[in-house]
Write a structure and sequence with these properties.
The chain is of the alpha/beta class. It is built from 18 helices and 18 strands. The protein has an eleven-stranded mixed beta sheet, sandwiched between helices. Strands 4-3-2-5-6-7-8 form a seven-stranded parallel beta sheet, with helices on both faces. The C terminus is likely disordered.
Amino acid sequence: MKIFSAQQMRMADEATIANEKISSLELMERAATKIFDLIHNRLQGAPVLIHVFCGIGNNGGDGLVISRLLVTHGYQVKTYIVNFSDNRSKDFLANYDRLKEIAKEWPIQLKSEEDFPEIQPQDMVIDAIFGVGLNRPLVSWVISLIKHINNSKSFTLSVDMPSGLYADKGPDDVEGVIFAAVTVTFQLPKLVFFLPQTGSYTQELEVIDIGLDSVFLAQHSGVGELINKAEVLPLYRSRSKFSHKGTYGHCVLVGGSYGKIGSVALATKAALRTGAGLATAYIPECGYETVQTSVPEAMVITNDDDELAEIHLDFEPSAVGIGIGLGTGKKTIKAFGEFLKKNTSQLVIDADGINIMAKHPEFLEYIPEKTILTPHPKELERLIGTWKDDFDKIEKVKAFSKQHHCIVIIKGANSITIAGDQIYVNNTGNPGMATAGSGDVLTGMITGLLSQGYDPLHAAVFGVYLHGSAGDIAARKVGFEALIASDIISHIGASFLELFTTPGTANEQS
């Protein structure tokens, strides 16, 4: 599913109005009616008091339509106009007049904190103050209104986007944003819903189809793509009946140091579970028995005692995953640099591999094109420097990716894969995966896909999806708190099978 910017959504509206020969007022009626239908289907006429807060632009116009439809269907509604400016959009004014024609009570004007209504926890709030159109800091009393709504603890539904959020940067005041139980957004999701700083303002996201021009939507690539099953299923490569283990490559997982051998064991097992034909763990001598025992299907090559002092392979692997538990000792740093200079295999770099490159940026000259980097937030910061907000972070990662011709996965909730200007936002995974070793499993899975001949970008996007899906299946069995990295590995097979099931079928994995 494409992710559009605010500007692209405005252009889609304009294309729809022009091609369908309808007015902007008619399109507003269509969009807002869809939200009313969703609310009505859930409430079914329940006697709940609904507070509708409307701004004075088009998001407020949507709120006025919703309010009018609620009133005509017998709901108890109080409508408020948030007068933060003297400017009003024409469609807002038209819908204001329409509401006044049918409402017993005219909309209540809010101009200061003295006008704030009492809101009970059992009430419902519809937030239609700003939406996606916010482009300037809020006046202080509007921030106070937003805090007043949040403090009421009522169920809050935001129209298109929680008020107080910008579409392209972090909020000015982290408390001056509506915390929405549900956000109903139009046609396509926005990037703001999937970033750590801004995604927490929406508990549940509903994307509703309002019939925007299909040709326009098809012709524009958007600012990114939201990755669901429909997007990754075409990436899957089926197996031939007459294949053998050599068909699916020989990957090598390089890493480990005294006390951190488990990371390589996890990555190696994950590579095999993801389909690699052969896997070798290249580790210090101290980890030999651990890996050989915990992953009997793998081969093991050892070097030195407690850390890697040399990385030398007498064969050319299909793919290499390096950095997990590696350590950053002097001997290891030298070995890592020498390995990069002579390596010709496709590469995944994680953990201490990234930390070493952050301290020795000259090593970046030696990574092959389309190398995949999988940093967690702190490793990413060491690599690219600090950022002012998540949008700035993405732009810096794009620049880094283009400069070094590599693929970067920003790990976290909704992990984001970036290849140049291309952004892929993952939509699987859960909080239980915030656990030791989860990243090592991801490195192994992506290395295993590369080993089988997947294109590096496809391996990254597909690997992140499968990793999250396996975690979701495991979490349904053990819960978030009990989930450990080994559980993710145990459910990789189920995550593959889930690609070919539909909800409710007997074969669905749970």
